Amino acid sequence: MTRKALSQALPLIPSSVMIGVFFLIPFVLILLASVATLTPEGDMAYGFDLSHFERFLSWFYIQRALFSAGMCALIAVLSLLIAFPFTYMLTTFSDRAKKIWLIYILAQLSLSEVLIAFSWQILLSRTAGLGNILEWVGIAEKSFAMAPSAGAVIAALVYLAVPFAVLLLYPALSRMDRSLIEAARTLGTSPLRSFFTIVIPVNRSAIVSSSVTIFVLTLGAIIVPQVLGSPEHWTLSVLITDQAIFNFNLPFASALAVVLLILSASVIGLVMRFSGGEK
Amino acid sequence: MKLLRNSYLALFAIYLVGPILVITAVSFNAKKFLAFPPRGFSFRWYAEIFVANDWFAALMNSLLIAACSAFLAVLVAIPVSYMAWRHGLRYAKALFSLGIAPFILPPVIMALAFLLFFANVGMHGWTINVIIAHAIFLLALPLVTVSLGLESVDMSLIEASQTMGADNATVFRTVILPIAAPFAFAGFAFCFVLSLNEYIIALMTVGFTVETLPIKIFNALRYGYTPVIASIAVVFLVINVLVFSLIAKFSNLSRILGAMD
């Protein structure tokens, strides 16, 4: 028995060490750093100092946190609205068409946020963007730059989130029991009506969990708000980067990271509980 | 109804592919300034990736880091997934959940955690930092794909080979490995692509010493427009498409994405 237990434990040692040393310890370090003191020389002294959280509790940072949460919630809703009908149709495509779409969507989803930000910077620019088309069609008198603005940040983040939304909804929708729809159709329900009365309610839990995932995902966006927004559109993630890399204030960056962690964890927990309680 | 459906599909396709098409058009622009529709046609900005030393060096850094971290992630994932599946060890399952966590957290949190860790142990800006950091961050991917591969192994095949006298090592080599290997490859490929495109963790671990391609692009963006970025975007998209086509060809993409077979 002990030999068996030993032979089962041995292969797990390297992986345990890797995960323990490079995930658990760094994670604990963030918690420690968030209550550490910044010495006048710019070094960090571990201790128990809540001043960074007090600093967060000023209106400026509260406002930034609320702005981040509100914007990401809006993006989650928008990207699901765009992606849900498509994903529903995708499950009815031929295997070959399905495969091609999935490959393309995966490829775009993996494209660096830096490159997405760049392409939207071009799309929204004065000289080579949508403004030109508006001018050409005659809607706008003269082409204009659409970034930096909150709209530009939201547009690019929705674009970033849509492929994720498709892939998050895809398993539930492709496993959905089609006989329900067929039954409704035989009974004379219109396709559009059956979509709203059957497809959406049946997949409610997938919709909820996908929107939470998208919310957390966009909370993590760093480049789009910097490239396409002005500082008042910066999200918590950008502020954390800014504090850590450019202000060398690691304790405050860690405190903000803890806030971000609590924010995303509580949204996940709340929604899971809410959607679980309904069943 | 059909019209509604088709026009929605067309709009969706334009929305998804449109920005990529604009970038592709811009990347073939002959002039240095930004223009759409492009003026002239040239491969100049594609050649620039390989001719300009700094861009080429960044590309090589990124490829090296992506390959090493993907390999490391698969190595760490295999024993965990295997032990959880074969022996149902509770410890392995706990390790599995722990390994998924870094991927779910907002990346900036992990980035900051790695920054603190490597600063504390005195490894300042070593290339290996970002390799380890990416491997841990992306560990969830091979964990999931390898588990999926193992779950598709038919237990009766294992029993059959055992009754015919195969020992554990032989069962692993002749039954489990051939079925699970494509899924391990898929995990490698997912990690490779995501590491190649990752920005914030690379910035916080090696940002001041090693320039990866996403870091270099972001730095270039702050100093204004460079057409090379457009050509890199196209090259990256092509790489992504190629890698995912390979996954689709050699393992079961639908299954990995969680759909029914």
TrEMBL record, chain B:
Transmembrane segments: 7-28, 55-82, 94-119, 131-150, 171-196, 228-248
UniProt-listed GO biological process terms: transmembrane transport
Claim: Cell membrane is one of the keywords in the record: yes
A Gene Ontology cellular-component term: plasma membrane
Gene3D superfamilies: MetI-like
SUPFAM superfamilies xref list: MetI-like (SSF161098)
Topology in the lipid bilayer: Multi-pass membrane protein
Keyword Protein biosynthesis listed: no
Assigned keywords, A-Z: Cell inner membrane, Cell membrane, Membrane, Transmembrane, Transmembrane helix, Transport
Subcellular location: Cell inner membrane; Cell membrane
Segments forming domain ABC transmembrane type-1: 59-247
Pfam families, alphabetized: BPD_transp_1
Family: Belongs to the binding-protein-dependent transport system permease family.
Protein name: Spermidine/putrescine ABC transporter permease
